[in-house]
Each structure stands twice: as C-alpha cells, then as structure tokens.
Amino acid sequence: MKILISDAFDPSLPAQLERFGEVTDDRDRLPEVDVVLVRSKTKCTREYIDSAPNLKLIIRGGVGLDNIDVEYARSKGIRVYNTASASAIAVAEMAMALMVAVPTRLIEAHNSMKEGRWAKKELKRTELHGKVLGLVGAGNIGTEVGRRAAAFGMEVIAYDPLLKNHDFLSLVPLTELFRRADYISLHVPLTEETRGMINEETMAAMKDGVVIVNTARGQCVVEEDMAKALESGKVRAYGTDVWYSDPPDPSSPILSAPNVIMTPHIGASSRENMLRIGDVVVKLLEDFEHQIA
Ligand code: NAD
Predict the structure, then answer these.
(1) Are 128 and 154 in contact (CB under 8 A)?
(2) Distance 89 CA to ligand 1 centre (A)
(3) Which residues are bridge partners to 157 per DSSP?
(4) Of 4, 261, 256, 249, which Cα lies nearest the Cα of 107?
(5) Which end of the chain has less neighbouring CB within 10 Å, N or C?
(6) Domain 2-82+271-292 CATH assignment equals 3.40.50.720
(7) Which atom of ligand 1 is found nearest the CA of 137?
(8) Looking at ligand 1, which residue's alpha carbon is closest to its atom 2?
C-alpha cells in the first residue's frame, strides 16, 4: 500500500511504516495513495477526498476530527480513525500548566525578573487548593485533568451530557457548574452545541473573577465576548492553547486582551505523545492490513 504522511508526526514514524509499503511525505502524490496520515494542518474536505481516488483510510494523529469531512469520506467507503486516548496526558498537562500559571502569577513574575524588577511585594498569589474546578467535557482529557486537579486539592465537578456517571468525577448540570466554578476548563469536541458555548450570556452566569482554560477548540469561545469579559474583570484570566485558526488572525481580540496566557496549539505536541500516536498508527495499519487481506 502507499501511505502519505501529510502532516508532522514523530521523525521515527516513516521507518516504522515501511513494512506496510511505500511511504511518502510528498503531498502531490495524493492521487496515488491508499492511506493518508494527518494531524490538524491538512484539511480533508470533499475536494481533497475527491482528488484521492485510491484512498481507503484516513488516520488523524490526535483526537478532534473537525478537519475531516468524516461523513463524506465514509460515504465513499473510506475508513476514518483517530488516535483517541493517546493525547490525553499531554493535553491534560498543558491545561494544568495554563491553570497553575494564573494563581502563581508565573508569567508576570518571570517577565518582571527579565525586566530587572524585584516584584516580591506586588506579586500577591492565590492557590488552586480548595477552589472548585468545573470541567466541561469529562472524556479522556477532562478525566486526566480531573485527576491532576484533585491532587492539587481542588474540588472537581464536571458537566458531560453524554455520560450518566463517572468513576470519580461528580457530574452536575451546566448551570450549577457555571454558578460554582472558580476555574473552568474546556474538554469538548467542536460540535454545533459547543461552538460558541462560552459567550457573553454564559459568562454572565459564571462567578465574577472566574478563570477559563481552553485546550479544546478556539471556536468554543466567542473571542470578542471573552476579550470584553477580560477587560471588565468578569473573567480574571483566559488560558488558551487553541484559536479560531492556526495561527490566529493578527486581529484576534484575544492577542491584545489583558490577562491572557497563550500557547500556539502545542497541547498534544509532547515528544512522548508523538511516540504514543506513532504506536497507535502502527496498530491501526496492522488491523487495516488484516481487514483488507
Ligand atoms: P473525548 O471524546 O474523550 O471526550 C470529549 C467529551 O466531551 C465526551 O465525554 C463527550 O461526551 C463530551 N461532550 C460532547 N459534547 C458535549 C457538550 N456539549 N458539553 C459537555 N461535554 C460534551 O475527547 P478528548 O480526548 O477528551 O478530547 C477533547 C477535545 O480536546 C477534542 O475533541 C479536541 O477538540 C481537543 N484536543 C485538543 C488538543 C490540543 O492540542 N490542544 C489535543 C487533543 C484534543
């Protein structure tokens, strides 16, 4: 079989895949290939799929399938898989990093030292301990964040309409989560329900001074509304790894809003995760080989 590695995977992956057939990273060879490996950069639209007449399998190294027209691919008999739980630890650590940076004043403290200022007196801190964390989405990543936050002494509550119960997270209605949470962390897929779910109206239902962390998808938050909430202090800080587009448009109001901690969509990009994703890709190709044999 011919395999196109269309986005950035671990450098060890091409050699691991050679036993399955010819491996290329030349995107111009899309019309010939049987399998395409993508992360988030390649957009598998209808047109993309139509230009790959031999395509039988798309593997998304990562979780969200919102860069793939899954319905259209499946209607053409193309299988679509992701590497589901592989990224949970990497993204959970990123969400925790964004969260911990707020009460520790990590960014301001670091910047003040770089500027040659000794801000020991002005940098008053708070703690995560004893605060309520509301997880929106309690799947693989939300669960890992919940474990870590509990170890920090936070009370963790979660909203997930598709779960009836959870091993250790306390599931609550979204209205209760908004009312009670000091910190809110998003771990939902991008769907019609979650697009824009953090907006002026929903933020009004939250505690004053709430901290919001987004490692899910940029479009889950209405950026203009978030910028206004940061200006007014309704939201104390917004930690985000995700954007409307990668990279964000320079006019994004989040880039210039106060109290934002931002990273360039690197939640899943740990070395360990890249290796885990590679292992899952190999397993999926083994299964695929058996299915078509
Ligand atoms: P998952 O499928 O294991 O969990 C998602 C959970 O969200 C599910 O339990 C689902 O029931 C729940 N959900 C669906 N609709 C909801 C709604 N309206 N309100 C509340 N909960 C809802 O997925 P995961 O592995 O935990 O990943 C979650 C998301 O994180 C992905 O879909 C992706 O968008 C994002 N992600 C980001 C990065 C990054 O680099 N920052 C990396 C991987 C994943």
Answers:
(1) yes
(2) 13
(3) 134, 170
(4) 261
(5) C
(6) yes
(7) 21
(8) 139
Integer distance in angstroms from the first to the last C-alpha of the chain?
12
pTM of the predicted protein model: 0.94
CB 157 within 8 A of CB 133: yes
Q: CATH 3.40.50.720: which residues of the chain?
A: 2-82+271-292, 87-262
Compute the distance from residue 216 Cα to the ligand 1 centre, in Å. 6
Residue type, 83: T
The tokens for 34 are 């049987």
The CATH class for the domain spanning 87-262 reads alpha beta
**Residue at token pair 């895949």:** 17
In this structure, the number of other CB atoms found within 10 A of the CB of residue 69 comes to: 20
pLDDT band, residue 240 (cuts 50/70/90): very high
Q: Find where tokens 């695929």 sit.
A: 288
pLDDT at 117: 98
Would you state the structure tokens that stand for residue 281, as one six-digit string? 């890709």
- Record the tokens describing residue 191, joined without a space: 């769907």
User: Using an 8 Å Cβ cutoff, are 215 and 266 in contact?
Assistant: no
Ligand 1 atom with the shortest distance to the CA of 193: 18
CB of 277 closer than 6 A to ligand 1? no
Cβ 137 under 6 angstroms from ligand 1:
yes
Strand segments (E) across 154-291: 155-159, 170-171, 183-186, 210-214, 235-240, 260-262
Q: Which two tokens stand for residue 115?
A: 């500027």
Helices (H), 233-270: none
Pocket test for ligand 1, best of 135, 162, 199, 243 (most atoms within 8 A of CB): 162
What pLDDT, on a 0 to 100 scale, did the predictor assign at position 293? 82
